[in-house]
């Protein structure tokens, strides 16, 4: 079976890997000149089931409203009154209801757990060094949090099979001595020992190399412009080919679109993909003072900022802006990330050598990815992973490959299907 995968971000690469592992011939196309140049390029680095949760959650509406009056708030919404944005916001609002959130969170956590298992399968097959941490991750609480909230979260994680414990400030300081100097007011932290961090782009590039070594074909600087569908002929209801800029036309048995936030635009008029881009920022800086640098990767709950150790560098990430497809860097936002790290770990990083980046998270209203068949028999999508795509990548890639090949999946494919599209087998 020959499968074309459009998109060489982490989702396209993991899909190609698992398809190839099950005997398919793969061709991967990307409009960029190499792998991981979209949202997978410089993301926060957390591969974490414990930190991942849908953003459409109870309380999110109040937080979003308050943030409109605070320029430095992590969340920003610039209304553009387009049908796409309004529809997405209204659908997201519906998903904030407690019962909707509970179901969405469980589907998302299940995918993250499966992804960890599938990551181990990738690591067993291919030797990949991607600055992986092995000490778990921390979620820091600066302010006191109600015991019921912490207990409720820990109970949820336990039910799902995700190990986690709450640490007092003294216990956190023992693990992270530098924090004791900068954040004496810390309340405590959630420690997730089974979760990890690592460089998603390095992982993706090395996985692409491994697929290529086994005969996988990659076409760079090849934007797909048109999906050619047979609506009424002998192969009605199927994709016949895809046409790329420059005149290249590619035929295959099946086509997977792992085109991230671009997916609704690429498949416009063919499949309605309910997702919207959520812009985020990151800073990557070399560490210069190891004594004062963080040893663990951690997420600061108060500022909603991630700080991941990637070898001798620090990746600081955060901010969620609903501003359409505008990927320009705003200097004030870059300074905000830089200042958040400096406050926590003064002088630990060489901020003059920092690089900044923005990426568009492909976000669905319910926060659950779409790893799915479509109305067309040989067209599939693997997208909509929002702010947790690295954490779900290997699970989504494996699930997608199984759906494409024979529908025999390890987890319930219907949990990640497009509305109205059922997965026939299990
Ligand atoms: C600031 C930030 C921090 C984040 N932090 C984390 C984190 O800590 N942990 C986590 O789990 N997730 C995180 N994420 C989310 C994660 O990065 C994304 O969910 C994930 O990278 C999405 O991967 P993807 O392959 O679907 O999309 P992308 O990486 O965007 O890949 C899509 C690819 O499709 C290609 N493409 C698009 N259209 C076409 C076309 N017409 N023709 C050919 N090619 C096309 C693009 O060039 C691109 O290479 C973060 C995201 C951001 C922005």
UniProtKB/TrEMBL annotation:
UniProt keyword terms in alphabetical order: Oxidoreductase
Alphabetical list of Gene3D superfamilies matching this protein: D-Amino Acid Oxidase, subunit A, domain 2, FAD/NAD(P)-binding domain
Keyword Oxidoreductase: yes
Domain FAD dependent oxidoreductase: 2-402
EC number: 1.4.99.-
Entry's transmembrane regions: none
Keyword match Iron: no
GO MF: oxidoreductase activity
SUPFAM superfamilies recorded: FAD-linked reductases, C-terminal domain, FAD/NAD(P)-binding domain
Xref: PANTHER family: D-AMINO ACID DEHYDROGENASE (PTHR13847:SF280), SARCOSINE DEHYDROGENASE-RELATED (PTHR13847)
Homology family: Belongs to the DadA oxidoreductase family.
Record's protein name: D-amino acid dehydrogenase
């Amino acid at each position: 079976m020959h499968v074309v995968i459009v998109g060489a971000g982490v989702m396209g690469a993991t899909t190609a890997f698992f398809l190839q592992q099950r005997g398919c011939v793969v061709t991967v196309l990307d409009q960029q000149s190499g792998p991981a140049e979209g949202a997978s390029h410089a993301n926060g680095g957390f591969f974490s089931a414990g930190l991942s949760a849908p953003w459409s959650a109870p309380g999110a509406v109040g937080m979003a409203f308050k943030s409109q009056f605070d320029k430095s708030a992590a969340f920003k919404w610039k209304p553009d009154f387009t049908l796409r944005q309004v529809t997405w916001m209204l659908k997201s609002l519906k998903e904030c209801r407690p019962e909707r959130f509970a179901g969405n969170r469980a589907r998302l956590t299940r995918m993250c757990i499966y992804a960890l298992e599938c990551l181990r399968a990738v690591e067993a097959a291919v030797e990949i060094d991607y600055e992986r941490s092995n000490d778990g991750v921390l979620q820091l609480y600066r302010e006191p949090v109600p015991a019921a909230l912490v207990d409720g979260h820990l109970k949820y994680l336990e039910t799902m099979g995700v190990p986690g414990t709450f640490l007092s400030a003294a216990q956190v300081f023992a693990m992270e001595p530098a924090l004791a100097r900068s954040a004496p007011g810390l309340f405590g932290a959630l420690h997730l020992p089974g979760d990890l961090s690592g460089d998603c782009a390095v992982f993706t590039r090395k996985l692409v190399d491994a697929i290529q070594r086994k005969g996988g074909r990659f076409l760079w600087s090849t934007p797909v412009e048109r999906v050619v569908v047979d609506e009424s002929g002998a192969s009605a209801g199927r994709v016949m080919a895809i046409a790329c800029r420059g005149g290249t036309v590619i035929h295959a048995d099946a086509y997977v679109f792992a085109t991230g936030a671009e997916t609704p635009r690429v498949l416009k008029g063919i499949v309605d993909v309910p997702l919207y881009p959520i812009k985020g920022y990151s800073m990557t800086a070399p560490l210069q003072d190891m004594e004062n640098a963080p040893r663990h990767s951690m997420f600061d709950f108060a500022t909603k900022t991630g700080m991941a150790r990637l070898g001798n560098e620090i990746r600081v990430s955060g901010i969620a802006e609903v501003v359409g497809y505008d990927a320009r860097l705003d200097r004030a936002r870059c300074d905000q990330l830089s200042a958040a790290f400096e406050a926590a770990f003064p002088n630990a990083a060489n901020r003059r050598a920092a690089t900044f980046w923005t990426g568009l998270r492909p976000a669905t209203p319910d926060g659950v990815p779409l790893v799915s068949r479509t109305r067309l028999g040989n067209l599939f999508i693997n997208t909509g992973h929002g702010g947790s795509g690295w954490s779900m990548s290997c699970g989504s890639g494996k699930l997608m490959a199984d759906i494409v090949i024979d529908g025999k999946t390890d987890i319930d494919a219907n949990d990640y299907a497009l509305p109205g599209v059922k997965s026939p087998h299990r």
